[in-house]
Amino acid sequence: MPILNVENLTKTFGGLTAVSGVNLTLESGELVGLIGPNGAGKTTVFNLLTGVYHPTRGSVTLDRGHGAVSLVGKKPYNICKEGVARTFQNIRLFRSLTVLDNVRIAMHQNVRYGIAGGLFHMGSYKKEEQALLEKAQSLLSMLGLAEKSDELAANLSYGEQRHLEIARALATDPALLLLDEPAAGMNPAETAQLTSFIAQIRRDFGLTILLIEHDMSLVMTICERIYVLDYGTVIAAGTPGEIKTDKRVIEAYLGEDMGNA
Amino acid sequence: MKKRKNLPLIITLAVTYVAVWALQATGIVNDYSFAVIVTIGINIILATSLNLVTGFTGQFSLGHAGFMSIGAYTCALITQKNPTIPGFLLGVAAGATAAALVGVLVGLPTLRLRGDYLAIATLGMAEIIRVVFLNLEITNGAAGLSFLPQFVNWNWLFLFTAGTLVLLRNFLNSSPGRACISVREDEIAAESMGVNTTKYKVTAFSMGAFFAGVAGALYTSYFFFIKPDLFNFNKSIDILVIVVLGGMGSLSGSVIAAVLLQLISTWLAAFPEVRMVLYAAMLVAIMLFRPQGLLGSTEVSAVISRRLSKIGRRAKEEEV
Ligand SMILES: Nc1ncnc2c1ncn2[C@@H]1O[C@H](COP(=O)(O)OP(=O)(O)OP(=O)(O)O)[C@@H](O)[C@H]1O
Ligand SMILES: [Mg+2]
């Protein structure tokens, strides 16, 4: 049963069509890659799925097993509440806050005490804050950031910041996780570790993952299916084996290195 | 761990309360110096509440004096009719609530604006409020209201100032408070992580307005004379200066700056010819040496605990 169904998704910026008639389907529990040359429109697809941009045309529906919900026209925080979380290609952490607070903020939507509870530290404040702390710490230790929990996000190394992006996304309790170039800037050893980590969180959290990545070794290793985007349109879709030999894909990537896959 | 976190604040508050009480009882603090203390208390409320909006939530507001005036006039109109302690408390509550409601009304449309635009919009709002008070009959126009009943003594001042501090600190250490801070940090990321940024901007804005209303009501009930010009653009700037000087995003910074600036300007009152020049020069100097404000965005308690843990670590290393 598909958890995400995208039909004819289109986005124009003035005269530029960044995304054009894209159809995507993600089965529940799948790990799917979204690849394509620079400027192909991959990040724009994520921004459309998460409500940062509104589509010019097309539909996006999410179905977590209890009825289909249209995500078009919804605000990002409502889409997050529906169970779609993301990381950002150009890291967008809460830089001057601690690692712990970065994660705790992402848990905000599931906190039941309100503004009065916050002002007077009353009601379920104590209990919920304790639970929040424990959950945040367990997420951070999963991502190897337990020791850094009081460090400011801005002081983390680049790789650690990418990990914190993932921890923060997981903290929102998603069903569908969108990862935008999680391995960018990582060395091969770090990338290998991340690759197995992504496979692991999918299992542990029962996630469906859509992954944008330029690192072909990562994509080809863990993705079950791949969509290839070029100039805003899907030019190919299939298993890693099919994609590697697809003529149009090779053409689109002409000059880029597909060899190390 | 929680208990230890609150201890410095509780001790500071208790010591302050007892100290001022003792100074007043022994006559060392006379009426004149008590007026300085009242001003400090009111400025602490104004600065910390503006800090919530500007320093913590990142929404640049130049209209804080407008909210203060709503609290001041509302309270004055109530205590004029009902010059009793319950009347005073009703005046504070009504003044703060009225300011908060105006905060919601103004915040909903304007908080969509960012940076400079929001600053101009809030400035315009404060001017409109001032002009309304200037032209209303019930507020007696430019002459203002005088001979209002006086209620504020050290107990009330302490209660409201310490209350504001504790509530703001609580709020900022809660999930809705962290949601406000995330808006300052990165609006798109916050929104994508499930934070309804508009809601928390309006929350911070109207909560800031609420406490500014409290400050205005206290002003009325101590200085017993108010007129629209007291709450002009300059007043908003004065409050902003305290916030920036103490550190955007630091409650204790606002407190320290409010005390320091009032002491300096009280001391400078002895040199009326050069007062403003010296005051301004001092601000420039502080900003040159500490552009992030006295405390940056940290709190005194955090600085102390960091020092302590460093000392502790060193002591441990020496043991080994
Ligand atoms: N807000 C915007 N306004 C105007 N043009 C935009 C905007 N966002 C993206 N674009 C354009 O849309 C196109 C697709 O951009 P997008 O960021 O989606 O590419 P991408 O596939 O993620 O590329 P990369 O691999 O470099 O990250 C680009 O030409 C980009 O300049
Ligand atoms: Mg991109």
Q: Mean of the pLDDT scores of chain B?
A: 91
The share of residues in helices of chain A is 25-40%
Strand content of chain A: 15-25%
Q: Could you please say which CATH topology of one domain in chain A applies here?
A: Rossmann fold
What is the CA-based Rg of chain B, rounded? Answer: 20 Å
- The number of strands of chain B is 0
3D architecture notes:
The complex is a heterodimer of chains A (261) and B (320). Chain A is of the alpha/beta class and 261 residues long. Chain A has a domain at 2-83 and 174-252: Rossmann fold (3-Layer(aba) Sandwich). Chain A has ten helices and ten strands. Chain A has helices spanning 42-49, 76-82, 99-106, 115-120, 125-142, 158-171, 188-205, 216-222, 240-245, 247-252; strands at 2-13, 16-27, 31-35, 57-63, 68-70, 84-86, 176-180, 208-212, 225-230, 233-238. In chain A, the strands form two sheets. A six-stranded mixed beta sheet of chain A has the order 6-7-8-3-9-10, sandwiched between helices. In chain A, a hairpin with a 2-residue loop joins strand 1 (2-13) and strand 2 (16-27). In chain A, helix 3 (99-106) packs across helix 5. Chain A is globular, with a radius of gyration of 19 Å. Chain B is mainly alpha-helical and 320 residues long. Chain B has a single domain (30-319), classed as ABC transporter involved in vitamin B12 uptake, BtuC (Orthogonal Bundle), CATH 1.10.3470. Helices cover 77% and strands 0% of the residues of chain B. Chain B has 13 helices and no strands. In chain B, helix 3 packs across helix 9 and helix 4 packs antiparallel against helix 9. The longest helix of chain B has 27 residues, at 197-223. Chain A binds chain B through residues 50, 52, 75-77, 80-81, 85-86, 88, 92-97, 101, 104-109, 111, 113-115, 117-121, 125, 128-129, 132, 168-169, 171-172, and chain B through 167, 170-171, 173-179, 181-182, 185-186, 188-197, 203, 207, 297. The complex binds adenosine-5'-triphosphate and magnesium ion. Magnesium ion (MG) binds at residues 42-43, 89 of chain A.
